[in-house]
Task: structure prediction
Amino acid sequence: MPAISIKGLTMPESPIRKLVPFAEKAKSKGRHVFHLNIGQPDIKTPEVALKAIKETNISVLEYSHSAGFQSYRDGLVAYYKKMGISNLTSDDLIVTTGGSEAILFTLNSIADPDDEIIIPEPFYANYNGFGISCGVNVVPVTSRIVDEFALPAIEEFEKLITPKTKAIMICNPGNPTGYLYTKEELGKLRDLVLKHDLYLIADEVYREFAYDNKVHHSILNLDGLEENAIVIDSVSKRYSMCGARIGCVISRNKAVMATSMKFAQARLSPPTFAQIAAEAALSTGPEYFTEVKEEYVKRRDILVDGLNSIEGVFCPKPTGAFYAMAQLPVDNAERFAQWLLSTFEKDGKTVMLAPAEGFYATPGMGLNQVRLAYVLNQEDLIESVEIIKEALRQYPGTLL
Amino acid sequence: MPAISIKGLTMPESPIRKLVPFAEKAKSKGRHVFHLNIGQPDIKTPEVALKAIKETNISVLEYSHSAGFQSYRDGLVAYYKKMGISNLTSDDLIVTTGGSEAILFTLNSIADPDDEIIIPEPFYANYNGFGISCGVNVVPVTSRIVDEFALPAIEEFEKLITPKTKAIMICNPGNPTGYLYTKEELGKLRDLVLKHDLYLIADEVYREFAYDNKVHHSILNLDGLEENAIVIDSVSKRYSMCGARIGCVISRNKAVMATSMKFAQARLSPPTFAQIAAEAALSTGPEYFTEVKEEYVKRRDILVDGLNSIEGVFCPKPTGAFYAMAQLPVDNAERFAQWLLSTFEKDGKTVMLAPAEGFYATPGMGLNQVRLAYVLNQEDLIESVEIIKEALRQYPGTLL
Result:
């Protein structure tokens, strides 16, 4: 039998998926499982986007332009302007199949096999997979839960820079941390990449989700970074349109865009129906986001305050996205998450958590941490906190 | 300024796109351009697929399963059974974002950077781009226009096999050749890959388009090839749904599928709307294909018979897909194609051809060949042949 690639063998399984068989078993026992493990919001997709799809009048479902509909690209330029990111033209962005493809185009355009990109950990686990797909090595620099996952010291980055380093990559606000980088932190990253002639890649798909009157700062607004900044974006979370698979890659660096365009042409075009929906979604009013943000803030407070009221639990209050990382008083978070699904129940209900180990690249990190996505309604979150509290009382591996 | 990757620098531009600026100039002069250069059919998408989209009742546009909707995968199993490919289960296929992504998953699963796959040339030019994306080297084995692009002798393949060779890849029926491999040819490929423990990858996206009572043979039906055969598929051409971006990868090799699944999970899911349309399209009746095939046969005959009636032109009559390769009596086909757009006109009209050089990996091959897609209606094709005939009379580089 012919062999599987080393790439394929080393490709990690998603840390979220590993527990799926346990969840299926819990459900087969009739237990209700609250899914705090995945970033699939329950928020309604804007009506205007869904309506546009129903009103399509297509007779031949043709390829679109490889960079996406011109009208959608123009609409995106106007959207970014409204978000305070000015002076973009439609040539500075390419519509992609989800943020995922934007990352692939970026890595393929700036890095060769065995090159390195430095990413603060914990990070979105699929960055590993995209690195492996492109043959690029992800080098972690650890941010710490005690620091609420603030940017690690710049010296920590500098220690890791080698001739193979091509970029620093951040997710802002962060998945899985919910951390929102300050302007000062971003300024430090700018100085670092300029000093070492690196790219700065920012995954800004949670841009809208900044709370407590804090402001999201895009790396596209950092002075002097025009040739170095590459932004990954997506409509998945913004408009609760995860299934659309529409994202984009943005850079003012013309060589990066011309190269990304060659990869875009090879795959022909992004999906047409989803582009129609995403373009229509651009007219979503600010009241949609005000409502959604108010809802997320309430949920965050219920979850985070609830968790922090449990003895031995530490959960920094995030100011962005819809994730929180919590440190639990357990022997091992993955074992605890399995036990929650396989053994525990409270009134026939339990919760599914994402063990944090899979979000770290450094072995041994995050062993007593979990990621929680507050994508459930408020009552469910109140109940979920009660379940975790009771579970920590009963779990044989609780360290208190 | 930070550097572009070597990958990015060596990534070829699509041979079809290179002429686009010339076409734009022709159009700006008010000339009508008949597009024989692209495989975008003018055939109507089945009504049932478009209707399904209008009738969607979605409130949260969620991620689908990474392997695609279970109902769609079950539907695909039934479709393949109807096409004579039995004994597949839904675990043997993963729904992808176009055939493009199916190729990426396949190459990533079976080959590492610097590994090689052998492909008969001329081949679909984007195979090069997918090879570069994955770091895999495409090694061409030349099929010849005088042989109507039949499978090259097996000894020619064997000469090219090295320890780095991981697969032989074919497109059947072929883009750009329209060649339909015989059962005997496929049997020879089977023996070859079994002898050398290689994968056989077949891009079978034109399966339905076999003419003159010839039958398409899938490599999934070759005895003894269960662990070696990987099929790339797509709805783009079958249902004239190029803009959907829905394909699939199929193999009975469980390790290949488990590995592809890890790459599928990293990118989360294929597009939801397009999957709904593709699933609905499965109920397209046989009369749709009968009509479409009748139409393509008429077009092929107009184009190919017309071209062969021109002095010095040689165009083997293809029995599959909707492409033909023609050898022209010109100094250089790319120069001729440019001249057609920049200088020539017949009653204010001209044609756009795809120079064949970009479909060959061996330098110097195909310099006097073009690919023509017969995706225009019959009158336009009749006129296109007249334009080519007149152009060859006037072109300064005609060699007659």
User: Anything to note?
Assistant: The CA atoms of residues 304 and 315 of chain B lie 6 Å apart.
